[in-house]
Amino acid sequence: MPVTIVMGGQWGDEGKGKLTDRLATEAEMNIRANGGANAGHTVQTDQGVFKFHLIPSGILNARSVSILGAGVVVDPKILIEEINDLVQRQISLTGFRISDRAHAVLPYHLMADRLDEVRRGGDSIGTTLRGIGPAYGDKVMRRGLRMVDLVDSASLRAALARELPRWNLMLERVYESEPFELDALAAELESYGEQLRPYVTATEPIVAGALADGNQIIVECAQGAMLDVDYGTYPFVTSSATTAAGACQGAGVPPTSVERIVGVFKAYSTRVGSGPMPTELHDDIGQLIRERGREYGTTTGRPRRTGWFDAVAARHVVRINGVTDMAITLFDVLDVLDTIHVCVAYDVDGEIVETVPARSDRLMSATPIYEKIPGWRASTTDVRRLDELPGRARQYLAFLEEQLGVPVSLVGVGPGREQLIQVTEPAGATLAGISA
Known about the structure:
It is built from 13 helices and 20 strands. The protein is α/β, with parallel strands linked by helices.
């Protein structure tokens, strides 16, 4: 079972790109499974900082095949910009492939996304305005245009001739906006298709061949599991399946081939956009975490909401995804704090709740119940071994293991590739007889 899934355990932005980049150094294939250009994965290397929105983070491993799976919705304009940037920086794209079954994000999806958020007013979802929801909407309504259509001029024009009148009618009558002109739109998209044609192919046989050969495969999820369209904080979610099951579907990987599911969690919580976040901080500590963690969106630049670690939400994610081990990122952000809080339950209208309610209004009214953990007040950025961490830092990791019921396998203590601690035993096992 050679497949490892790397998935976000919170509301996205957990540092999955860095983890994928690290794990991809030992893999023959890496696959991006879901989402679109609303994702932002940052990888810092000796070649500089790379910010990916569509390209799989494992692309920096020249020996690995990198695939955009069928579950991704592809904005061709943004993808071409990313490809051109990598070419200019002399990153090889020899092994890069795009599933011909992946759906395209089209200009009218982008426009509809923006206009719909305006119409929602105070009830806006807080989307990235990248057209993701409308593109997935077309997909499930069986009206989408796929990459196999984008790279074929006749198929492209036939699809646009069929679908554009409906979209123009909606734009004009519902949103009171200008319609698209068929020939101009077709010409723009034909240009994109021409540039992307060398990369578009049937990727399922490639993945099947890698599995048959016993190759190591990394499947990279976008966003986080608390944004999953089924199990997240609906309706304040993304439009794709961000779970481990969704990763299999989007990547074209059978579940029976999965050996490991790495849940990536920050040492605290963040969220971008609207929706419930019970542990959100609106004080100086929240701002301190934001500045130390550089918590500004890779895709939008928006400041992220910050808060304490939410073990209730994290347990929910671990259970429904079968997480085998967890990576804790941005651990060093907490180095300066005297006391750290972890939410272990919610008080919802006087009821003590240890699971995530399905109704977002109940979650919005939840008061977090905290356990307080002593801070370690020491820099961890140069630490590379678990037993070199301060005792109280290891106590915090051990507490998270106890709360979530799975071991910590990796700890990130800075943005660099090398700033990762590989954990080979439970954090609590190193505490006996060692003072804080």
